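Our collaborator T.R. sent over the components below with a one-line note: 'Predict the complex.' Nothing else. No constraints on interfaces, no templates requested, no preferences about which chain binds where. So this is a plain run: every listed entity goes in together, and whatever single assembly comes back becomes the starting point for the next discussion.
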Amino acid sequence: MILAETVLFSLCLIDTGAVLFLLIYYIITLSDLECDYLNAQECCDKLNYWLVPKYIAHTLITFLLVTHGQLVLFFLNLPLFIWLTYEYFTIPQGNLGKYDPAEILNRGQLRKHLRDLMIYIGYYLVSFFIYLYCFILALLKGNPIAGSDDQIVTEM
Amino acid sequence: MSNLPPNPFVSQPGANANPVQAFNHNQYAQVPLGQLPPGYGGLKDNNSNSPLHGTISPQNNAIQNINNFNQSASSSPAFNQPGLVQGGMQGSPMRPFPQSSQPLNQISSPSPVFVSNPNPYTPNYQPQKQINDNVPPLVPPSQHNQPLVNGPPLAASMPNPTSSSYSPVPPLNRPPVGGYGPSSINQYGPAPNTKPSGPQSLPIQHSTQFPGPPLAGPTNIGTSVPPVSRNVGPSVPGPLNPPYASPISGPVTNPPISGPHMGFSVNGPRLNALPPNSAVEARPVGLNGPLPPVSGPPKQFSSANPLPMMPSVSSPPGQPYLNQPVSQPGLNSNIGSNVPTALTPPMNQNIPVNQQAGPPSGPTGGPLKSNMQSRYPQMPQASYNQQSAPQQSMKYPQQYNAQGLTQQMGQLSVTKQGFDQLWGHHMVDLLQTRHILPEYPEDPPEIKLGHQFADSPNCSPEIFRCTLNKIPETNSLLQKSRLPLGILIHPFKDLNHLPVIQCATIVRCRACRTYINPFVYFVDAKRWKCNLCYRVNDLPEEFQYDPVSKSYGDPSRRPEIKSATIEFIAPGEYMLRPPQPAVYLFLFDVSQIATDSGYLQVVCDVLMSNLDQLPGDARTQIGFICYDTHVHYYSMGEGLARPKEMTVLDIDDIFLPSPESLLVNLGERREAVCALLGALPARAAPAPRGPAPPASALGAALQAAYRLMAPTGGRITVFQTCLPTAGPGALHSREDPNARSSKDVNHLNPATDFYKRLALDCSGAQLSIDLFLLNSQYSDLATLSGMSKFSGGSVYHVPLYSSARPQHVRTLQRMLTRYLTRKIGFEAVMRVRCTRGISIHTFHGNFFVRSTDLLSLPNVSPDVGFGMQLTIEESLSDLQQVCFQAALLYTSSKGERRIRVHTLALPLASTLPEVLHAADQHCIIGLVSKMAVDRCVSASLAEAREALTNVAADALSAHRLAQNAPAAAPGLPAPAALRLLPLYLLALLKRKAFRTGTSTRLDDRVADMCSLKCLPLEQLLRLVYPALYPLHALAPPAPPHDAPCPPRLHLSAERINSNGAYLLDDGECMIIYVCHGVAPAFLADAFGVSAHAQLGDEGRALPRLDTEPSALLHAFIDKLNDDRPYASEILILKDNSPSRHLFLERLVDDRVESAFSYYEFLQHIKSLVK
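Returned assembly:
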């Protein structure tokens, strides 16, 4: 299943954009918890619900990139993929998920989560613009109007 | 308070006029019903259950008077022992309670009905004694000499404390200096049982805040003081006193500046010369090798042994006291180890005893003894110039001990040490000090607030304690001190004198919702400034009214301002639903192991006899569920002559067969309940039906209980005897019996989230689950405890329970009786607020942290404590003090909504020595043990042990840094305020929870961890470092006391004399250890046997004989039992009993195969100190 480059990057773009929105939702929820608008149980239920979709979204990007031979981008995504996998599979058995209502307000975990989320957002923002760049590049490369001006595009 | 809740009040003119949201404690109030768990039936259901509910209206005053009376009465059975109760005042409500000593008067007045101290103390403010807060004593003018009185020299010159020179204030009633103003004494002072009318007539009562000392004091007045004066007299020459007195009294009486400034000049330059902080931080944490080679310490001992005594110490410390046995020639005392020359090695330990205490009556140490002593390396002989002073001063009437540590330096005349003493900065060389443990309980270090609040009553240290009694100004200073910063709180402690107030509006800060407290600033008569967020608030008109003098004008005379612990009866806006009734549900395991253990008979009997004592009102409901592989319900509804059993076979999808008749009103259906309790044990008995099913479906039963109780909330009590193996929440055995003594312990984490999830659901429905684990095999407490941990319950563990063993039965009976009859608060929430700049980052205890600083406690009991770790987020240097306020909102068993507020204020410290010397070592141990439990679960046991060791090393490194001492300095100097830290840490490392190398069942380990997490400090300390008392020389008590108070001994075999008898008290069990050489007369008088051989190997009962030693012994044991939730089990062991290891393993100062002795541990720490 080899997709055209444009399709591939547009998929990546949409995927990353969705993850970005999800992360912002995470941040809003956690800040709500911090400000007492929300109780811990509810907050953690919401966050844990979206944990797997987030993980799948990232796995999908990584998988797409490696199947399409975009090795540079793949290696860019690999560390986060490994980290997410590690995180997902090391949740203690006794916890209710990555965000545990009984622990989240203890030991500064809330801040740690917020800090992690900020790092994620930065990471996804950067990759979002990389995909955008690649997407435009692919669009220009494959532009039928440009016809024989391939070399101009590549020099750009 | 960075996370202020959304604040609708600022924009609204009257915060209290806003009924529902005014109380942001009450978060469940803000949670819409949709957020509550599915079983939550909503408000309408409650109404059907609660005929008596309703908001409290002024017309109810009469009822409330009664309620107040009952509340405080049932909460305070312990105050019949005024000075005797050492610390924790919670007594079991079982204890007879004299009505006449009821200290609580309720004054009914038209608008603010309140209950307060009948004997209000009007603070007479004396500006001339405003002293900066690091000058220790802040004394009324009549007591300028008080710091001197604390030290031995003066006392030596004045053997009788009641001599006329102290006539202005009778010494026994002398108020403690500083932070605890006399009014706080009144607050907690128990009404003496012996003279119920006393409190009203005395200006100042005996105080339980200074619990231990009063024991010691008056007892010794008659006996031990004269010897002390004889002994100390020569060593402290008379002329010493005047010069000694003058430098101290100077700064105290003079205007304050000179004192503190000199203090800084001592400390300042040193600090400036410190190496950069990075040197401190860079110390490697991971030192896991067993550092000192085994041969090391013995060498040290041998080289240290010949050290001569300091000539100035002519009298060894314990001597004055121990001289008493001279009058009892038959009994030898245990002072061998106290006497300097005794130490030279094992065998001649008794010789000095004989010299000091008269001819020995029993044989000297036999082969057993010498073996034991050669097993344990000796500490080097030390010079006593530091230690003898405190130990002697301990003998004095301890009312003077309010200064605690300041009195230590009695005999030193060096100026610097004099100043150190003055500011409470003295040091102890741990390696040189053998008798580090105070013989009599010490008061917690005193809190000295700035002048403005010097007289303000602070919260009792039994309720609220901070690890540092001076908060560092900045986070970097805290890091430099390397001490943990945190508070321990025991919020629902049984108090004997609690002011209860009912008023129309509860005055609170409009910004941060802090309750008005003694530490607020009054800007003028109409406004007050919050001491937590510094907002200026209006004072309501009625707050001007003083209900005692019935006059208007001075708001500082209100009980809210005069007491740091206060209880409000909450008006209607503090409840979202009508106060819930008391609802109790009992879950009994009736699987095969349970029936074999036979616990059900015991439990049912205790329940039946305590049905009347269950706290509650006419709405109280009760229900029972049994479970094995199925779940059995018992319907006791109307129209049933006998309880009907209904069994639900489908445990995977549990349902309630007839919800309305499973929980019944206790008053109306009492016969049915009794019939059921009578029939249940037979129903579960193994005989007629063949063996019971082996599996236990605990999870299903819990789900059923949740469904049954969710509409009302209440308490679920689970009796579990085995691993639940059927239905939801089934577990499998994880423990490897062969790995019980291995270094790394696994499976301290829960195996499934089922119990946690259930507990959180329960917490949302105001349900709490208490677990009684009576297991005889591995039951995975690590997982099961989750159900209590997150629902605010508690865990009780009786390992290897079998009804065939009477001691188990007795323990369970006592435990259960206390559990059933103690006070209980329902649907509680607790919020701890801190001054801006400080925040809580970790909570310890059993609860669910629902939002940043709100603890949800579906049930709160008087036997649990909580811990919180704090961080300093902003610099506090522009503040004068830091305050913490804990507010507990609960529904009493009578259906009243009440708020109990505790406020603690602490001064600030700007230099490292100040921080170190103001540390509260007991509180640090309490907090550190909780942190270590967390570390075990989140990381590993090895890491937790390492961290514990590092606590001591860090603190001593910081002290070395503060002293600017070279790294290779000899000895191990420690601030006096931290001198017990290594001792207790070593004991903690040898607790079941943290020990390695000794075979420990996983469940025992986890149970120990659970108790470390949620015991109140005093019980926790007793558990960590049990008290050891010599019994063979119990002196008759002096008149004010009715029980003897022997000195505490180190937990070391060297303190065990072969002709003594000892009592070891760890709070759970009292072990009486009778050595073979004890005088036959004592055996006959105390134990009723004529020879040592006639004692049983394992006695469980102490006979009550009609002799004086027996009476003394019983009085002493009763006194010890008085301050704990239920009486301890007594175990009498001989020194040749097969089970004497039960006693010997508690001697935690000594070396065991896999763990350091105290001296080795010190060496280890010394090697870690950088």
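Summary for T.R.: Confidence is low (pLDDT under 50) at residues 1-413 of chain B.
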